[in-house]
UniProtKB/TrEMBL annotation:
GO terms for molecular function: methyltransferase activity. It comes from the Bacteria. Pfam families: Methyltransf_25. It comes from Jiella pelagia. Residues 45-139 form the Methyltransferase domain. The keyword Transferase applies. This is Class I SAM-dependent methyltransferase. Transmembrane segments: none annotated.
């Protein structure tokens, strides 16, 4: 994982927001899944590997007021901050999630960009330890990854691909699959990438 911070910083320095394959003006599936949790507006939510995603904008529109946005790229987060009011109730964290030590616990953990880049078991285990420590009992994890028939790489990096069964197995017995969504993401230039999103309840 050591080379990735510079890689993503480089991506966001040379590409505009809508020039990235993962750009969505409104991330419908994550918003629907967050809605499915029944979370109140004071629920603590973290978006892991957020980049310059519009998810935080949409959550603020819906009245959520305890949002943490984490990414490896300072440029990506600066771009997002520039879109939002200066008083927006958002904590900005420039950090590798594998090294992150949260100072609070969350009701919702959302990630549609980080976990599938972890192809080594040791890194996956480290990620899941951080997630488990950060999530409150009864909290929800929303993890989006490339599906089994999705891309095998992204931005020149190999990825791990999951369906509901594989992701459930990887999270383990402490998490119950609540909802599974297969999603075809259309890139800004019209190609289709197949994703799987899983909504999990932490026991």
């Amino acid at each position: 994982m050591e080379e990735i911070p510079n890689r993503w910083e480089g991506v966001y320095r040379v590409k505009e927001e809508a020039e990235t394959s993962w750009f969505e003006d409104r991330p419908r599936v994550p918003l629907d899944l967050i809605g499915a949790t029944g979370a109140e507006r004071d629920a603590a939510i973290v978006d892991v590997g957020a980049g310059s995603s519009r998810l935080v904008d949409c959550l603020l529109e819906r009245g959520f007021r305890r949002i943490t946005v984490l990414d490896l790229s300072e440029t990506a987060l600066a771009r997002t901050r520039a879109r939002l009011p200066g008083e927006a109730p958002v904590d900005w964290v420039v950090e590798n999630v594998l090294d992150w030590k949260p100072n609070q616990r969350f009701g919702i953990w959302h990630d549609r960009a980080a976990f599938h880049f972890l192809t080594e078991t040791v890194d996956q285990d480290a990620y899941l330890r951080v997630m488990d420590g950060a999530l409150l009992p009864g909290g929800h994890a929303i993890i989006g990854t490339f599906a089994p028939d999705g891309p095998t790489s992204c931005s020149g990096l190999p990825v791990a691909r999951y369906d509901a069964a594989l992701l459930s197995e990887r999270l383990g017995a402490g998490y119950q699959l609540v909802k599974s969504v297969n999603y075809e993401h259309r890139t800004p230039w019209g190609s289709v990438q197949r994703f799987h999103f899983g909504l999990f309840l932490k026991f």
